[in-house]
Design goal:
By secondary structure, the chain is of the alpha+beta class. It has 2 domains: 13-133 and 277-451, Periplasmic binding protein-like II (D-Maltodextrin-Binding Protein, domain 2, 3-Layer(aba) Sandwich); 136-276, D-Maltodextrin-Binding Protein, domain 2 (3-Layer(aba) Sandwich), CATH 3.40.190. It has helices at residues 16-21, 36-43, 64-71, 74-77, 90-99, 110-117, 142-148, 170-178, 193-204, 235-240, 253-260, 269-272, 285-290, 292-310, 317-324, 334-341, 371-383, 393-403, 406-418, 451-455, and strands at 52-57, 81-86, 104-107, 125-130, 136-141, 184-187, 211-213, 216-221, 226-229, 246-250, 263-268, 280-284, 344-348, 351-354, 467-469, 472-474.
Length: 476
């Protein structure tokens, strides 16, 4: 198991749930005590109330904790009979959890957040566990790669120096515009990490990815680059058809483009934001309250799977690749999945590099659902107009606390640590915030305790006092 940690930890994990419950006190958020239901749920370690469960996922390698929990018997150890069911797209998956057809799911981090604030749909979902760090990339077509590769800085071995800034696309976008053609790129869902990472990368390179307005739900107002939604498994075919010139997606669909020789990953999400949070495990709030023992059991099983995936420097990853390649899970070739899942990442034929942290499931407190992660997603929703007007910092804290539930995570993790299943050192002692974070491609530092100050740092994006209306962006 990896031992590198992103912050100071303590073996006094028993304090964790209490610390998390008052996590926002230092940010003016301590005036709302957790409900009695939340306290009881956080203590849950009792009998499983609902042993037969159906969980949803999308065919991506970062659903691995669910597949491993199933295949290695971790769900069964916790008294759970779990069916894992692939979903057609993120909207179908979300509707399945909200409607109760699914008991929980591998979910985009932005989905339970957006549902809570009523963007797109309104529902009370929670995220008691983060599934992983990193795992995405941005791929461009061979045509676009040929247009930019000659201008890239090269290392002594002749390979491009990474990270590659989106500024290299500026002349390409200009060329398309001169021909009267839009420059189109794909992402997987409007509130996906992929949408915000792609937008972040483009904006850091001086390209405006556009704003969402009530009259423009596609988010293309004032855009230099037009973004559209494509389900992950369909990304390579959409690129090959020429409908889009690039996309941001999770694996194995960047490596699939390399294998098919139709595109080149130009940057990974770890290069855009080092050790960024990715998917979450999400359930309905009322499910956690009605079935606290079941909720705790699911979390324990998934945490055990996360530890298995990162154990001993990734010794289990080859077995994980075989499991994920099965058609009932990701269903891609083993070689394609292994290209990013086993400590390597291939940008193009002949350019395979070490990438030991491309997928992190357990190390660096990957499973802990930090409030600051939720707040980052909210800042990007505001930056691009999905949140149409200003809100005080307190509003961001309140929304994060409503969705992310470190109390539930810490309770389950503590139960495992008490039994020696996971090391106590793997459980953070924290107020729910990561602290100031750097590692962004534009050099901007993020502090989750100051969301509005963070938004003010961006050259491209909505500013304080600006609003989005059906006619566009207003205000200075």
């Amino acid at each position: 198991m990896g031992t590198e940690r992103g912050f100071v930890f303590s073996r006094r994990a028993a304090l964790g749930a209490l610390l998390a419950s008052v996590a926002l006190a230092g940010c003016g958020g301590g005036d709302k005590a957790p409900s009695q239901e939340a306290i009881e749920a956080a203590k849950a370690g009792g009998a499983v109330e609902k042993p037969v469960l159906k969980l949803g996922f999308i065919k991506l390698t970062d659903m691995a904790p669910l597949a491993i929990a199933k295949e290695k018997g971790f769900f069964a150890e916790e008294g759970l009979n779990v069916t894992l069911e692939p979903q057609a797209n993120w909207k179908v998956l979300l509707d399945g959890v909200i409607g109760g057809q699914l008991d929980g799911a591998h979910m985009l981090a932005g989905q339970p957040i957006a549902a809570t604030i009523g963007y797109g749909t309104k529902a009370e979902l929670i995220a008691p566990l983060s599934l992983d760090l990193n795992g995405n990339a941005i791929t461009v077509s061979n045509k676009v790669w040929d247009m930019v590769k000659g201008d890239l800085k090269r290392s002594a071995d002749g390979k491009p120096v990474h990270p590659i800034s989106a500024s290299v696309l500026q002349p390409v976008v200009k060329s398309f515009a001169q021909q009267g053609k839009p420059f189109n790129m794909g992402m997987v869902f409007p509130v996906s990490t992929h949408n915000y990472e792609l937008r972040y990368w483009l904006a850091a390179g001086g390209l405006n990815p556009g704003y969402y307005t009530p009259g423009d739900i596609k988010g293309t107002t004032s855009a230099d680059v037009q973004l559209s939604v494509t389900p992950p498994p369909q990304m390579p075919a959409t690129l090959e058809a020429g409908t889009i010139e690039g996309y941001c997606v999770g694996e194995p669909w960047n490596q699939a483009a390399v294998q098919k020789k139709i595109g080149v990953p130009i940057v990974t999400d770890d290069e855009i934001w080092h050790d960024n949070p990715e998917k979450v495990f999400s359930i309905r709030k009322d499910f956690a309250e009605k079935y606290p023992g079941t909720t705790a059991a699911m979390l324990r099983a998934i945490i055990k799977a996360q530890q298995w995936l990162d154990a001993d420097g990734g010794k289990n990853r080859a077995e994980a690749v075989k499991i994920l390649s099965q058609p009932n899970y990701v269903g891609a070739d083993e070689a394609v999945i292994a290209a990013s899942m086993t400590g390597k990442f291939t940008f193009e034929p002949g350019d395979t590099r070490d990438a030991p942290g491309f997928n992190i499931f357990f190390d660096k407190f990957a499973g802990y659902p930090y409030y600051s992660d939720a707040i980052w997603y909210l800042t990007q929703m505001r930056r691009w107009g999905q949140i149409p007007a200003d809100h005080p910092d307190q509003w961001y804290f309140d929304q994060a606390k409503a969705v992310y539930r470190p109390d539930l995570y810490l309770s389950a993790a503590k139960q495992l640590a008490d039994k020696g299943v996971i090391p106590a050192a793997a459980i953070p002692e924290t107020d729910g915030f990561r602290g100031e974070q750097d590692g962004f491609i534009d050099g901007i530092t993020y502090d989750g305790k100051q969301p509005n100050a963070y938004l003010a740092k961006f050259k491209i994006g909505l500013k304080q006092g600006q609003k989005v209306t059906a006619s566009g962006v207003t205000g200075k």
